[in-house]
């Protein structure tokens, strides 16, 4: 292996790898390879990766980001779903003994088992990845649902989705996804990545988003499942009032309407307001109040 080769992300090396292996980009897997080393280094910096960190990467592609992570991290475990890329990664990442690549779908992987098998448990755990656009939201929600002790999640995604994750009440991007993520994590957009640094070039810009697990949840509903059902139902039709969406969720019977009116009055929320105006605290208070009245999803 020639260690004097240009870095994987350089345009010349990327082209050479593609030609050597006869690779084509799979649209079905949302494959876009980054060819700007400075952007990759900024991603690693945003995640504050150091020797104190074990890192899981999702979808390493040909290893451009993996290479930069390997230079800073204690250990890198990369999960790649496209088996065509496994021999490529074996070659491109050969100089880095602290990298292991496995053929695995993140949505089907047992992360707890993988972490126990591949890491020593003595280092902080981080996820750093360039996520495929078509499956970004399911991956994020899957990671949050695992309840594993990730110190930080730093991922690239479509700029529009990143804005939704970080959106604040009252903005057009604020919705059930914003609340679902911000309920668990501190969330911020680190920087924007222009579409011009990818091969092939996507139609939209990307963004790097940083998610850090909250040390303690600011608000704790009595029933988390009920709370999340309420949030999703409240945003079911964005143009409709909270009142109309609540009826869609719980029903229009006179008894139900009476309970909804009482609950809204008790938490001092106007029925005519739209869900995008409510904070996480508002939804937690409303969920607890509705639960107390015996309201159930129809």
TrEMBL record:
The keyword Ligase does not apply. Gene3D superfamilies: Ribosomal RNA adenine dimethylase-like, domain 2, Vaccinia Virus protein VP39. This is Ribosomal RNA small subunit methyltransferase A. It is found in: Cytoplasm. PROSITE patterns: RRNA_A_DIMETH, SAM_RNA_A_N6_MT. GO terms for molecular function: 16S rRNA (adenine(1518)-N(6)/adenine(1519)-N(6))-dimethyltransferase activity; 23S rRNA (adenine(2085)-N(6))-dimethyltransferase activity; RNA binding. Residues 39-215 form the Ribosomal RNA adenine methylase transferase N-terminal domain. HAMAP family: 16SrRNA_methyltr_A. It comes from Ligilactobacillus agilis DSM 20509. It comes from the Bacteria. Pfam families: RrnaAD (PF00398). It catalyses: adenosine(1518)/adenosine(1519) in 16S rRNA + 4 S-adenosyl-L-methionine = N(6)-dimethyladenosine(1518)/N(6)-dimethyladenosine(1519) in 16S rRNA + 4 S-adenosyl-L-homocysteine + 4 H(+); adenosine(2085) in 23S rRNA + 2 S-adenosyl-L-methionine = N(6)-dimethyladenosine(2085) in 23S rRNA + 2 S-adenosyl-L-homocysteine + 2 H(+). CDD domains: AdoMet_MTases. Specifically dimethylates two adjacent adenosines (A1518 and A1519) in the loop of a conserved hairpin near the 3'-end of 16S rRNA in the 30S particle. May play a critical role in biogenesis of 30S subunits. Its EC number is 2.1.1.182.
